[in-house]
């Protein structure tokens, strides 16, 4: 299959291009080869020769979207809509990568694909509108959350580095989701390509009970301790979502996604988040335990 992947300078795009190149003919696009702020670039992407478009590229910073809503809407909503229409016209499949931040996070618990939406930020609004348009054009939507992987440092690396440097640790303890390991996501997409891509939403994360950033930070320091890299387990201060001064954009509180439908579609269990995080720390940060 000829697979076109956007956002290959980023975390998920890189992981997808790397994994799928093993079994498909992959063309990897980045901002330099296709700037999604430019409508002419949408036409150039659509004119390429491909069977499936995987579209993780996005303005993924909530604060950048809040500061420049016009650009955010163009890149995160208008570009995927134009690409979805072009894919529909030419009979090609498309997978658009969205976010758990579109969900109504007012109530605790795991959220299924049919859960109501309540975007609280420009970023979430742009993604929610793009989702609807992509589905209308027959594309698929994969919602992901709290990505981590070897391609680019993320929250686990921030905690790991601060802990190894002996710096004080703090993490938000009252916001809940589930993390997604890019290596696993890329594998699931590979299986999805083989099984067929339905026009629907999938919730894609490493499963478990809902966790906070504080829970993830604890897992990182416990793994460091067990591997002998930390002599003692350091305390981690609990922060509150409302008390984060840098968070200008609204963020939903409870958006952990129920991934059973994805597992059923793929015909395989998804690796739980603790196992995935430990595998990542072991393989990519050389921790033994
Ligand atoms: N990271 C998370 O925790 C998370 C959570 C939920 C959903 N998501 C979604 O998952 C997807 C992948 O996230 P990620 O972590 O891989 O994000 P990322 O590392 O920031 O990658 C996104 C890529 O999009 C590119 N991009 C931004 N503006 C562009 C433009 N105008 N034209 C072309 N490319 C542009 C960026 O290019 P540059 O490298 O040049 O900036 C970057 O390489 C995104 O759609 C994001 O919204 C991510």
Question: What secondary-structure arrangement, pairings included, does this model have?
Answer:
Elements: E1 2-5, H1 11-20, E2 25-28, H2 39-46, E3 52-55, H3 62-67, H4 69-89, E4 93-99, H5 122-136, E5 140-144, E6 147-148, H6 155-164, E7 169-172, E8 180-181, H7 182-195, E9 201-203, H8 213-226, E10 236-239, H9 260-266, H10 273-285
Helix pairs in contact: 1-7, 2-4, 4-5, 6-8, 8-10
Bound molecules: NADP nicotinamide-adenine-dinucleotide phosphate.
- Which regions are unreliable across 5 or more consecutive residues at pLDDT < 50? none
Molecular shape: globular
Strand content: 5-15%
- Give, in order, the helices and strands: EHEHEHHEHEEHEEHEHEHH
Radius of gyration: 19 Å
Helix content: 40-55%
Q: CATH first level of one domain: which class? A: Alpha Beta
Q: Termini, distance in Å?
A: 39 Å
Q: Tally of extended strands?
A: 10
* Rounded average pLDDT: 97
Q: Name the CATH superfamily classification of one domain.
A: NAD(P)-binding Rossmann-like Domain
CATH architecture of one domain: 3-Layer(aba) Sandwich
The major pleated sheet works out as:
6 strands, parallel
The number of distinct helices, counting runs of at least 4 residues, comes to 10
Content-based structural category: alpha/beta
Bound molecules: NADP nicotinamide-adenine-dinucleotide phosphate
Strand order, biggest sheet? Answer: 2-1-3-4-5-9
């Amino acid at each position: 299959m000829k697979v076109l992947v956007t956002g290959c300078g980023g975390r998920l795009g890189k992981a997808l291009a790397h994994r799928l190149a093993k079994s498909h003919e992959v063309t990897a696009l980045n901002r330099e080869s296709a700037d999604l702020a430019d409508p002419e670039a949408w036409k150039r992407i659509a004119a390429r020769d491909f069977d499936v478009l995987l579209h993780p590229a996005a303005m993924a910073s909530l604060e950048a979207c809040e500061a420049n809503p016009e650009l955010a809407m163009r890149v995160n909503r208008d570009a995927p809509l134009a690409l979805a229409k072009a894919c529909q016209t030419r009979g090609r499949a498309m997978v658009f990568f969205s976010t758990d931040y579109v969900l109504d996070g007012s109530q605790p618990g795991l959220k299924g694909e049919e859960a109501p939406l309540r975007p609280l930020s420009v970023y979430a609004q742009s993604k929610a509108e793009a989702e609807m348009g992509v589905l209308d054009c027959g594309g698929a939507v994969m919602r992901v959350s709290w990505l981590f992987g070897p391609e680019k440092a993320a929250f686990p690396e921030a905690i790991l580095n601060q802990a190894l440097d002996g710096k004080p640790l703090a993490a938000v303890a009252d916001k809940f989701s589930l993390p997604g390991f890019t290596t696993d996501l890329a594998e699931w997409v590979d299986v999805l390509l083989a099984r067929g891509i339905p026009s629907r939403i999938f919730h894609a994360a490493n499963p478990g009970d809902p966790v906070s950033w504080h829970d993830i930070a604890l897992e990182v320091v416990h793994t460091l301790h067990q591997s002998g890299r930390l002599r003692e387990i350091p305390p981690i201060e609990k922060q509150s979502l409302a008390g984060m001064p840098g968070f200008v954009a609204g963020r939903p509180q409870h958006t952990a996604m129920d991934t059973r439908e994805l597992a059923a579609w793929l015909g395989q269990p998804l690796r739980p988040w603790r196992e995935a995080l430990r595998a990542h720390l072991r393989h990519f940060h050389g921790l033994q335990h």
